[in-house]
Amino acid sequence: MMSFLRFLIFQLSVAVGTILFGGSCIVAALLRVPDGPHSTYALAPRRWGRFALWMAGIRVQEHGVEHKQGAGHIFVANHLSILDVLALGGHLPWIKFVAKAELFRVPILGPSMRHAGMIPIERANRKAAFGAYTTATERIRAGASVGVYPEGTRGRAYPLRPFKRGPFVLAIQAQVPVVPMFVYGVLELAPRGTFRVYPGTIHLHYLPPIPTAGLTHDDRDALAKRTYEAMATCARERYGVVSPPYGSA
Length: 249
Known about the structure:
Oligomer: single chain
Radius of gyration: 17 Å
Structural class: alpha/beta
Strand order of the largest sheet: 1-7-6-2-5-3-4
CATH class: Alpha Beta
C-alpha cells in the first residue's frame, strides 16, 4: 500500500515539478533571459529532478565526481527509467539532453524542454538526427554539456544493449571528451510494469573521460566500443552485471 501511495506522490511531484520548473523556463524565454551555467534554464532540470526524487524518498549517490567537473562534456549513460533521467538532470552541471522528438509535443513539458535548450531527435529520420547533433555541437561550444542515451530506448535489465553510433559522431564532431556513466538501482526502486515506487538509492558512476581530440568520423565505432567497455567493466566489477561483448547483438 505504501509503495502504491509513493507511486502516486511521485507521479504528482513529476507533474507539479514540470509545471513549476518547466514553466520558469517558458517565462525566462519570454523575458529573453540568456542561457548560462547559473541561468533558469540550467537550474530548472536540477530542481525538477531533485524535487521529484526527494518526494519519492529516493536518494542519489555519486561516485567518481571528479570526472564530471568542467564544461563541454558528453555524458553517455545507460537508460532504464524516468528515474535515471531525473537523477542525471538533478546532478549534472548545465546539461542539455538529446531526447526523442515525441516528448517535445507534450503540453508544457515540450515547450519547457525546448526553451531550456534540450535537443529533439527524430531517430527514424537520419538527416534530421544529424541535424540534432549539429545543434548539440553548438550547445557544447557555448559551454554546456550534453547527455545522451546511446541505447536509444529504456531497457528492462542492467546488462548494456547495443549502442547507436550517433552520440559518438557528435563527440568527434564537437571534439570534446566523452564521460561514460553507469546508472544502477532504478529497477529496484520502480519495477517496470507495476504501480510501485520504493525508497532507496540510485548510484551514478562517472568514469574517466575519454578524449576525442584528433579523432575523425572513421573512429566513431572505436570510440563507441571504448565507452561501452568502460561502462560494462564498471557494471561487472561493482554489481556483477555481465553485458554481452560489444557488437555481439
